[in-house]
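All the exercises in this workshop are built on plain-text protein records. Instead of coordinates, the fold is spelled out as a row of discrete tokens. Once this layout is familiar, the rest of the handout is easier to follow. The record below serves as our worked example for the rest of this section.
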Amino acid sequence: MTMTEPAPANETASSKASAARAVGLSKVYGAGETRVVALDEISIDFARGEFTAVMGPSGCGKSTLLHCMAGLDTLSAGTTWIGDTDLTDLKDKALTKLRRDRVGFVFQAFNLLPVLTALENITLPMDIAGRKPDRQWLEEVVRATGLAGRLAHRPAQLSGGQQQRVACARAMASRPEIIFADEPTGNLDSRSSGEVLSFLCDSVRELGQTVAMVTHDPVAASYANRVVFLADGRVVKDIRHPTTDTVLEGLRSTTPGTSTHRPTPRT
């Protein structure tokens, strides 16, 4: 089965409030001859209720941008917000609480505990925090994942796509203001990728979530409302209503030496 390209997720007004934003964000590693500027005074916002993909060549700062904006990494300069909260003002304990309560994370590795069921993995962060899940919201998330019949299964009994959907549901279970996804389909085949990407689209369109996703795949990026391109630690292009073809053109115009071959969805 091949992965078909979807219609873009619902459009949102450009004036919508930001779920997360950065102003003058810089991240520098090392000093002297070993100094590397990963992010160079980036200003960007991710609108509420919108699906944004972040693309660019290896080493351009894609993952670093998400990690800094999510409070997983410190800034060298600039300011980041989740909603109206300035992360640079927060102490470690408050930052940990913000990440737990208001931010969701999905990574390339599923990061599921093998001894727990799918449902137990989904609710684990709230269990650790001593919080009871909102049952109505949890049912909505489970419905969107299509995993209702698999909640009692452990990760080894699930396909890769199902495991990543469990990871997505875990990120959404606390109803965060934004979900940061770093190459969430990187370990999946085309069918499983389509399942996960369709779920992320549905979470935005039907559940009002906000998603910011790093990807290298033009087909994956075409599921988003908007694609932001990075190069050398800076935002160099920003397009809306993306298709695989317009994403490829964006990559060609921002990445020297990029192939002009249009990728075919994997089987």
